[in-house]
Amino acid sequence: MDFVVPTEFFFVLSLVLFVLGALGVLLRKNAILVFMSVELMLNSANLALVAFARQWNSLNGHIFVFFVMTVAAAEVAVGLALIVAIFKSKRSINIDDLHQMEG
Amino acid sequence: MFESPTLQTLTDYNIWIALPAIALAFGTMFLLVIDVFLPANRKHWTPILALVGIGISFLINLFTYNPEQTSTFGGMFVADAFTGFLNIVVLITAFISVLLSTDYLRRTETNHGEYYILLLLSATGAMFMVGANDLIVIFIGLELLSIPLYILSAFRVTYTDDRDATFVLKSEESGMKYFILGAFSSAFLVYGSALLFGATGTTNLREIFAAVGPILESSAENSGALLLLIGAALSLVGLGFKIAAVPFHMWTPDVYEGAPTPITAYMSVAAKVGGFAALFRLMIVGLSGLTLDAGVDPAAWQGTIQVIAAVTLILGNFVALSQTNIKRMLAYSSIAHAGYILMAVAAVGSAGLVPDIANTAAQAGLVYLLAYAFTNLGAFAVVLALENNDGTGTELSDFNGLYNSRPMLALAMALFMFSLTGIPLTAGFMGKWLVFSAAVQAGLIPLTIIGVLTSVISAFYYVRVIVNMFLLTEDEGSPAVGETAPVRYAVYASMAGVLIVGIAVPLVTNLVNMVSLV
Amino acid sequence: MTLQAFAPIGVLIIIALIIGVIILMISRVFGPHNPSFRKNAPYESGMKPIGPGTRRMPVKFYLVAVLFIIFDVEVIFFMPWAVAMRDLGVYGLIVMGVFTLILVVGFIYEWKKGALEWE
Predict the structure, then answer these.
(1) For residue A63, which residues of chain B lie inside 8 Å, CB to CB?
(2) Cα dihedral sign for B15, B16, B18, B24?
(3) Residue A44, in any domain of the structure
(4) ipTM value greater than 0.90
(5) Which of A33, A2, A35, A38 is CA-nearest to residue A18?
(6) Is there a smaller number of Cβ atoms within 10 Å at the N or the C end of chain A?
(7) What pTM does this model have?
């Protein structure tokens, strides 16, 4: 018996990860955890891309993943810098403390 | 089979058609190196060189403006009238924003050369998005457009005297909110792209279009149609955040209020241009065949866009009525204007089967973007002129009696407000006229009625600014500390743009008539 | 890839779980269990801890981390090129030259700004 792992398995896993990441962004209060949840969402998309790329035997998906990883690294750099700046002046990285502007 | 590329491949690549964007990218990197090596007393050269870079890219764009569609990077990037026209909008926006920035940065003590480099990088990203014909390029362009804007929104943090000053905290908060929601939305876009790739096996928009038909026909035995629909929906969410369409608009007022005013001006235009360019390309070039009943129905996403447009128009205009801060008011107004441009997108979608009407609608959307660019930049230029160094002076009451102290600024602001309302002889009227008539042609009568009614409502809050400036004559008016020579040039340039687009209509329509997406 | 290829991993996971559970059970069942205040202290027969265990780090470490991330991901673009270098020939060399140029610009900026100094 030769059972090939179907693409759907990877897809469902990536969907679960994506939903977990989205919930993390919406429910978490700590900026770094929110940020990690965004990374989880991006990586779930990577998993889906790689799985589909294998299914279609196409390189485009792999190349897309490279770029998503690069962009994620750039976002990490900018995000950490912003978090450090906010911590310096507020002594807190709780995103609920960001309420300078209302309306 | 794989063929080894040779030097010949490089010359066959047609890279020159992407030259405006490439030139700006390399110019920016060059400027980065120059700026680092400039001695402290010569730093004022950075904005001048930035303007030169934008000018060079603009000239290259004019010389390579070719309505025939050509593609490069293996079909990932296309140059046609659409690309050329929106490149012009992006470059004008960047130019005026740099003009607005120079004195603002100096008087708010945030004068760092990186500011201009980030601004130009963001413009480069917008230019790549405008020509993108591939999901990968749309994503990279979007990120190159957004990531510098996250930093620029928080740029007043670099003010060193008093880290607890309100404007510093606001700017930080603005950057953080924009960053979190921007990253969140791009994750949606990536996942949507992944699903589209999974359904069609390609990331090229034209190949996606070719693959959609067969998938829909055989959808009984595979889940391709479902993947396509969910992928389109998630991509729409991702791009909806960037163009600030309701219900993905929550970040807009806070980010616009907290960011440095020249950046607010820039991102209110450039982010929308990039987002709408990607939306037009993705939905029309890639997914216009995505119908529930091929050949009869409009595209499946079209109903959703209609609803989003209607909600955006209503919410944007009504909430703007109750704002007292001019930056927040303009933020809600920019949300409302996204609604008008979404009307054009919806019109293209429902007319997908009739190429003529669809192209008219796409052209209307482009003219609207140009009109919106000039008008919004001008309005923010006047706001910036009135803003004090500590970020105050942006309340509506600060406009009281402006005609007494600065008649020229008051007249300019009146023109921009008329244009935003859509009074004839201004750019805004042209944009609205074309969009409404395209929507009527495409049969979107209810949406058009909502558009006209909300335009009438928008007059209340735009005219209130004019009343404050001209009729409250007992106030002596704002001293307008920010009104320096470059800011004045920016105001004049925007006024000229508003009047030219509004009066010399054939000039713009001739340029835009070459656009055909379908 | 077939599912059979994953079978050894599955077996390994099951064995690891079983061993872990068995060890915990054994010590629970056979070991003596009478806790006291002193035994539960963080350091039995040591000093009393002063202050929290985690301290704030200097922000310089973040700078190094950020710079590392950015110059780290370049490898994912170099790697595929290095694998296919002979097939890509001069064309690949030129394209990677442009890529490297962009990196070098970033590096020059970083160096001139003093981000690499540690004082």
Answers:
(1) 136
(2) positive
(3) yes
(4) yes
(5) A38
(6) N
(7) 0.91
